[in-house]
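The authors assume throughout that readers already know how a fold can be written as discrete tokens. What matters is that the chain and its backbone geometry are given together, residue for residue. A single example would do more here than another paragraph of explanation. For illustration, here is how one protein appears when written out as sequence plus structure tokens.
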Amino acid sequence: MTKKNERDELMHGEQSDKSMRKQINQFFAESLGMPIKSAPRTDAISKSQNRSKFNFMERNSIHMILILSIFAVIMLLLLSPLMRFEKIEVIGNQDLSKAEVLAASDINKNIPVWQLLSEQNYFTQHAKNNPQLKNIKINYLNMRIAQIKVEENSKVGLINKNNHNYYILSDGRLIDNQSEDKNPQNLPTYEKFPDYQSVRKVATQFASISTALQHSVSEIIWSPDQEDDEKLTLIMDDGNKVLIKWSDINKKLKYYPGMVAQTDKNGTFNFQVGTYFQQY
């Protein structure tokens, strides 16, 4: 055998030994449950995990930027002059001016739209601090125009207490008359009333009749007697006199205009028991 042949056989034998050892190692590793190391695969997994973390952080950053941008836009809109009312209307007011209604309600022309929308209950309750305001209702004609509908406690009379004049409201409360004119609205005066409770009872009844009929009365006199402890004497602007129970004002006084139209004489219209007219 030549040297070349000997060398080839030796190399073939070494390769066979290496292959055999590799197979034996793999057999034992699999039998013992030992992991077979693979460096290239581990590197691939590590790179994949890093890429996933980066994508997650990138998505979170985009979401945060989007939220902050929306918040900034909302704040700019709320502070913008475009989010304030161009006009605030007041309707239904008789005794009170627009400025008095707005002041009582704590509303001003520069109030933001969002505040009037979100705090309606506060403004409604605040308005009631003024005894002349029974209620207000806030409506929105559009996003630039608000309308405040007013329900007043109207003035139904005037009374003098301790040499000072007070207005009587439809719910019976008294408010100070600060006018230099003793009776600027030509309201009926309440005379000889013994206490506040009697004033309140008559005022609430009187407030239920028409405004025109209210204005036809110049005096309301508390005048009970032995036969009728609810008796009132009304002095009318047309020169007539009316006798009536205070509890019957809203039920019977409405017939007065029709009865007056049937006579050209002045006298007393008695509504206490039945209804009859007695000429002066």
Q: What stands out?
A: The mean pLDDT is 81. Residues 102 and 108 are 6 Å apart (CA to CA).
